[in-house]
Amino acid sequence: MKVLVVGGGGREHAVIRKLKENPEITELYALPGNGGIARDAVCVPIGAKDIPAITAFAQEQKIDYAVVTPDDPLVLGCVDALEAVGVPCFGPRANAAIIEGSKVFAKNLMKKYGIPTAAYETFSDLDEALGYLENAPIPTVVKADGLALGKGVIIAQTREEAVEAVTEMMQGKKFGASGERVVIEEFLEGPEVSVLSFTDGKTMVPMVSSMDHKRALDNDGGLNTGGMGTVAPNPYYTDEIAERCMKEIFLPTMEAMNAEGRTFRGCLYFGLMLTKDGPKVIEYNCRFGDPETQVVLPLLESDLFTVMRAVTEGRLAETEVRFADRHACCVILASRGYPEAYEKGFPLEIPEAVCDSVYVAGAKLIPARQDKTGGAELLVTNGGRVLGCTAVADSLEQAIRDAYAVAAQVHFENAYCRSDIGQRALKAAAQ
Ligand code: AMP
Ligand code: GLY
């Protein structure tokens, strides 16, 4: 079978590696993929948001199945477009991807169906938002309505910061149209848990839980990033909490989307906070998390392609989804300076012995030169987050040690990683 994966980050690399375990897949394409993914799939230089080019490629190549993983194409209707030309897909249609595409939609859905989340107000008028902030409890959280590369959330510690955030979003158009509406919500406290789930709209199968490390520096200092590392499972997520989440959050969300005529089929990501009043939803994503996927999929024992097709065809209830009772850790190697300014273009060395433990996020291949210098093909860094090093082991401690051992073998100039990925989880597990 011919399968294409839309996207080109570490998450897509992890999905592709897992898909490759299925011998039925004879040709695997990544659009656009990246220089590291090129080892595992044929990379085609078509951008993940170029939906007409993606559908044209799928038709020309007679693609049998497509996996759409990034938020932008999902929200833009990539699945709808592929289905319209007869290509079955893994991923929600645009009318369901809105659960991530609009925070106002997500918050209103939760309110309507009684799904626990932070109390909130939504605004499309700047003066009204500023008026509300005069008496809002501080700290408060300001969120741009639409997609903003994970940067549209401001935790304001003072009233002034909140006013500045709202003004920048609504008047300064810091996030373009994404900030025309804002959500201002209650500040919640407690450990965070990511739970990815498979759902076909009838059945909901949560995957192993995980913990992201969003801040750039050790001890959760520095700026928010796309994620500097992950561990799975998340020790805060006990069986008792899992049961409660299923009953109070996961199933009600699936049913709410059905009731709205927006059946969600694909991977629904629950960003949860375990507050003293119980688990609450911080965010929904309409896709696999990055870098959560790089620890969750290595623990999946069942065949990913089989599970994905069952989701598409509404057969998830009859399909086994089994995870290993082990631990995984992923350490991200980034370019120094990320998430602000950083340099790229440095040669990247990934020894053969650790290739299978590395998921490449930001790298490109410089083709071999035909000129007199005869330079060989070269892999160079091409992004803030360059790659993730994942290890699976019987204990969390060992998984952390092994992931850092892999990271120590990968070299590029200006490489940076946090040194404490998994430490908070280790402490929590020891309690
Ligand atoms: P997001 O971009 O929606 O994932 O949010 C980024 C981060 O902001 C989350 O992972 C949380 O750590 C934090 N956050 C979002 N909403 C809240 C909230 N209501 N209370 C406290 N922290 C929050
Ligand atoms: N790691 C968080 C996300 O994928 O949005």
Mean pLDDT figure: 95
Tell me the name of the CATH class of the largest domain: Alpha Beta
Structural class, judged by helices and strands? Answer: alpha+beta
CATH architecture of the largest domain: 2-Layer Sandwich
Number of helices: 13
What level of helicity do the residues show? 25-40%
* Rounded radius of gyration (Å): 21 Å
The distinct bound ligands, ions and cofactors come out as:
adenosine monophosphate, glycine
The termini sit apart by 48 Å
Low-confidence stretches: none
The tally of domains stands at 4
Looking at the structure, what is the overall shape? globular
Considering the protein shown, what is the CATH homologous superfamily of the largest domain? ATP-grasp fold, B domain
Q: What is the percentage of strand-forming residues?
A: 25-35%
The CATH topology of the largest domain corresponds to: D-amino Acid Aminotransferase, Chain A, domain 1
Biggest sheet: strands, sense, closure?
A: 6 strands, antiparallel
How many beta-strand segments? 23
Structural features, described:
- It is a single chain.
- The protein has 431 residues and is α+β, with helices and mostly antiparallel strands.
- It has 4 domains: 2-91, Rossmann fold; 119-186, Dna Ligase, domain 1 (2-Layer Sandwich), CATH 3.30.1490.20; 192-318, 2-Layer Sandwich (D-amino Acid Aminotransferase, Chain A, domain 1); 327-430, Glycinamide Ribonucleotide Synthetase, Chain A, domain 4 (Alpha-Beta Complex).
- Helix content is 30%, strand content 26%.
- It contains 13 helices and 23 strands.
- The chain has helices at residues 10-19, 51-60, 71-76, 78-84, 94-101, 103-113, 126-133, 159-170, 239-259, 293-296, 304-313, 396-409, 423-430, and strands at 2-7, 27-32, 42-43, 65-68, 89-90, 120-123, 140-144, 153-156, 182-186, 192-199, 204-206, 211-212, 215-217, 221-224, 229-232, 266-275, 278-285, 327-335, 358-360, 363-366, 378-381, 385-393, 415-416.
- The strands form 6 sheets. Strands 12, 15, 18, 19, 22 and 23 form a 6-stranded antiparallel beta sheet that branches. A 5-stranded parallel beta sheet has the order 3-2-1-4-5, with helices on both faces.
- Helix 1 (10-19) links the parallel strand 1 (2-7) and strand 2.
- The chain starts with a strand and ends with a helix.
